[in-house]
Amino acid sequence: MRPGELHFGWEYDNVFYRAPEMGSRSRPPACGQQEKGKRRRILRTVRSLEISADYDVKGSVVVAKKKTSTQKPAAAAAQAKPAPAVKKEEPVAKKAEPAAKKEEPAAKKAEPAAKKEEPAAKKEEPAAKKEEPAAKKAKPATKAAKPAAKKPAAKKAAPKAEKPAPEQPAPQVEEPKAEQPAQPVESAPAQPVDTSPRRSVAFIGSECHPFVKTGGLGDVMYALPRVLAQQNCDVRVILPRYACIPQKYQDKMVYRGEFYMDLGQTGRSYYVGIMEYIWDGVVYDFIDNQEFFSAGNPYIGLVEDIPKYCFFSKAALAALNYMNWIPDIVHCHDWQAALVPVYLRTLFKDSPVGRAKSVLTIHNLRFQGIYNIPTIRYWTGLPDEVFEMGALKQDYVNANMLKGGLAYADRITTVSNTYAWEIQTAEYGEKLEDHLRYHSYKLRGIVNGIDYGMWNPATDPSLVVNYDITNVLEHKPENKRALQQELGLVQDEGKFVIGLISRLTDQKGLDLVSAVIPQVMDGNTQVVVLGTGDKEYEDTFRYYENACKGMFSACIQYDEARAHRIYAGADALLVPSRFEPCGLTQLNAMHYGTLPIVRETGGLKDTVEPYNVFNGAGNGFTFDRYDAGLLLDAINRAKTEYFTSRYHWDEVVQRDMAKDVSWENSARQYKDLYLELTPW
Ligand code: ADP
Ligand code: GLC
Question: For residue 239, what pLDDT is reported?
Fold first, then answer.
């Protein structure tokens, strides 16, 4: 065993039930949350770079190409508002030139294979090639070029209709509201100086609060880099520049540069713009390309998302080379960035960024980025050896981007210890259990935390009354009454209010919830659901709202501020998930003095200690098997405690608020992992 590595045993005695296939993979989303409060203007003294030379990425590296025009492309120019201070700087990219040339033959080698396998692509090629010079002149992906790039994907999509439903469907842009959601506290208290060795880390992922968030991944991509920055890390977060990022953030971005990059076997050069925003010690670099990122939502469907994230993963690495910012660690998240470790060890291995170590974090194993091999070969241009069973190849037909990333990453993490164990079993492994067991020597679980600036009942601007551990018993009922009023429920502090804040998908155990609601609604209990997702669940909850007027509220929406008020106003929060890699809602709930009722799986098991009625220990109410009867029993135990033993209930409320669910410890574990990978 290597020092510091966790190995997972097999003495797990829980009984698991196999999860039925997921009907839909929806992630209810909200594109970008409102930002409020003062900002540290000082951090916005961004050094703006305008690099007027044009660059290409051949294979892995940015190379200077002949300048055709010094004029900025129209789209890039528009996006670059406010115009950055023009400062010509000798492009660092030039240094990378020889390596780029080395990469070229590899790309060329791949061509014949593509021609054999890709009749559709072949047909498209001439069109793409013809368009290339025009595209180069017009810089941002031109409309004319679009069909040529899109058609191959569509054609290839046909033979393998993996699932008609989008992998992570359409998010909704939150309507502007009178009340704003809680925002991160800008002025962090003075931190003790961290003396651990400094490391540079590039976070690469598909969403990040407050720019774009559809679930917990967005929270983690926001919170973890900030804590790492306090733990002596130099952190850059690389994200797609989706069109749905709220304008107020777009306005803050500063043009950092641009170059062109080839992509797979498309035969085209793609525009890669870099827009930068520096905020609280973290640098956010947004990869700009209107052809891939102009849709209103981050996730559309696999047909669009596969090419999009092939492009994004490659562009992220090329951008690091271009900016000459070579991190010690490239930390990638979920399938959307899973090709990064693969590119790093193949097309980019001889480029500057090739010396970085890679960490791949699994936030949710259910989403893997699976598509037919020819399509993924076409969009990535990865060499043949990558399409072996040990790496990307899933079966005779399909390639799996996450599987490839797991094979090539130097370390794999997932977001709780229990989930790290579970995913090596057939019940939770989503068909990757063997692969994960094979790579278990480099797999470990690090539980998520929550951002105490963003989630703080004492300062939360969304709440009617702020409170802390000293006055929670006094003020929580006021928040409950305000919530009841807001949602049109019977206003009575004596009612037991159960909240549920969730994507409404199969993962979250909602079939159990809908099965027990009739028994839960006893006249003294109110239920508040906030979420969007599968129509089946949305309709079920709407039905109950209608059937139990004044006692059941179904908020079928994504509303950050309302979520905060439910955490504050509810007595208990339900998280009966079928599987839960970590789960953040139970952490938020505990921090707001709301007792979680959870199923003992994944991070729920690791973060909620079952309440012990004999000695009063524990944080919430739990059940083990995925069974409606057991959920009902857990809810009833909670009710009994609430109605008959309020003193003990209140003790747990305060204990939960005092529990450390911050990022401090977990970020330290990530830092240790980075140091372990870079022991100099
Ligand atoms: P997952 O990432 O699987 O969706 P998590 O529990 O890790 O689940 O994270 C969910 C995050 O999204 C939490 O911050 C939660 O408050 C938030 N959230 C989920 N649904 C909604 C909603 N409808 N409105 C507002 N916030 C939501
Ligand atoms: C995923 C998981 C969730 C986890 C989140 C952040 O969306 O479903 O359990 O908390 O990612 O890691």
Answer: 98
For the domain made up of 199-445, give the CATH fold: Rossmann fold (3.40.50)
Q: What is the pLDDT of residues 339-357, one digit of tens each?
A: 999 999 999 999 999 999 9
Sorted by where each begins, the domain ranges of the chain are 10-160, 199-445, 472-662
| pTM for the structure as a whole | 0.78
CA-derived radius of gyration, the chain: 25
**CA of residue 654 to ligand 2 center, whole Å:** 26
Which residue ranges have their beta carbon within 6 Å of ligand 2? 215-217, 220, 363-364, 415, 448, 580-584, 603
- Ligand 2: residue of 206, 334, 365, 448 to mutate (most ligand atoms within 8 A of CB) is 448
Round to whole Å and give the CA distance between 37 and 182. 10
Ligand nearest to the CA of 182: 1
- Alpha-helical (H) ranges within 231-364 are 247-252, 290-293, 302-323, 339-345
pLDDT digits over 506-518, tens only? 999 999 999 999 9
Which CATH superfamily is 472-662 part of? Answer: Glycogen Phosphorylase B; (3.40.50.2000)
pLDDT digits 0-9 by tens, 360-373: 999 999 999 999 99
Residue 608 Cα to ligand 2 middle (Å): 16
Residue (of 197, 354, 235, 340) closest to 678 by Cα position: 197
pLDDT of 11 strictly over 90: no
